[in-house]
């Protein structure tokens, strides 16, 4: 029997967003961790706003919204605000009622600047890491470091001479350009769209693109992100940033760090040993690391586990939206990186909690 279409609209309902989200949904494991981390940032939130004035979007809503954008691969803040109007799971995660209106996209972007000014994303990532440490899910002495290129929100057509000597027709909105035979380097050219982006390529034979460099420090026990940094793609930024991140690791005990062949250099290995860090780097043909390090079982374990850091980069680029960056400049992309890696850690924590529960 064919069913009939009911067009009558229900006038009143006692349903809440919590009743509409399945009890076994993975995000139910994430929300309590996020709420606990946000409580730790209450004093920071108080400093962000004046005591008088017009109420704005609560910072808790801003942070949770950024996490949802990363978790559900939403391509823009405007699209998120549109989806928030009808997605009950989103409203439940933000502790909104069914009838509460969605945020205005321009207001959302303007208030997000407060997160950037007060480095709230950095503190939130630290709070998530502290929660993992409280649950005894972090390794305190075994880490892995690596870097990757993140394509900037700028096209190669914007990479023009710094002296202004450009033969392109200014009247054309999108002129065709032939770069063959033109020698372009970061020393002589600069992007007019994003001046902080640098022309770089991952290896020989690869296409050069305008990029930033993304760096991650991973602990080896459960593969959680301890620190993340976005820098200019200078070619040596991986090793320099790795040393900076290792220097921030708390404690005075000797630690180990796994890395690929790109870190097998005299300056990196020597500096690590001076910092009480044992460099478990993959060896080149003429390696700085000798059998005093490689003969131990810990070296082999580090070399095996360090490959898990590629899972983090894969998640950030596919799910987290980092395949092509959405923002201009290092500062705004650093904000994205910290929130995206915090979202990755939350997914890992939820999975670990479910695994330990069984």
What this model shows, in words?
The chain is built from 14 helices and 8 strands. The protein has helices at 17-20, 27-40, 42-48, 59-71, 77-84, 88-93, 105-117, 120-134, 237-247, 266-274, 291-294, 297-305, 309-318, 330-357, and strands at residues 142-151, 159-161, 189-191, 198-200, 209-219, 225-232, 255-259, 277-281. The strands form 2 sheets. Strands 1, 4, 5, 6, 7 and 8 form a 6-stranded mixed sheet that branches. A two-stranded antiparallel sheet has the order 2-3. Helix 4 packs across helix 14 (330-357). It is globular, with a radius of gyration of 24 Å. The mean pLDDT is 88.
Q: How would you concisely characterize the structure shown here?
A:
This protein has 358 residues and is of the alpha/beta class. The protein has helices spanning 17-20, 27-40, 42-48, 59-71, 77-84, 88-93, 105-117, 120-134, 237-247, 266-274, 291-294, 297-305, 309-318, 330-357; strands at 142-151, 159-161, 189-191, 198-200, 209-219, 225-232, 255-259, 277-281.
Annotate the secondary structure layout.
Layout lengths: L16 H4 L6 H14 L1 H7 L10 H13 L5 H8 L3 H6 L11 H13 L2 H15 L7 E10 L7 E3 L27 E3 L6 E3 L8 E11 L5 E8 L4 H11 L7 E5 L6 H9 L2 E5 L9 H4 L2 H9 L3 H10 L11 H28 L1
Parallel strand pairs: 1-7, 7-8
Antiparallel strand pairs: 1-5, 2-3, 4-5, 5-6
Helix pairs in contact: 2-8, 2-14, 4-14, 5-7, 8-14
- Which radius of gyration do the C-alpha atoms yield? 24 Å
Number of helices: 14
Structural class: alpha/beta
Give the topology string: H per helix, E per strand.
HHHHHHHHEEEEEEHEHEHHHH
CATH architecture of the domain at 139-152 and 211-325: 2-Layer Sandwich
- What is the global morphology? globular
Strand runs, count: 8
CATH class assignment of the domain at 139-152 and 211-325: Alpha Beta
- CATH superfamily of the domain at 139-152 and 211-325, by name, is Ribonuclease H-like superfamily/Ribonuclease H
Distance between the termini: 44 Å
Q: Predict the CATH topology of the domain at 139-152 and 211-325.
A: Nucleotidyltransferase, domain 5
Largest sheet: 6 strands, mixed
Overall pLDDT = 88
Strand fraction: 5-15%
Runs in which pLDDT lies below 50 for 5 or more consecutive residues are: none
Helix content: 40-55%
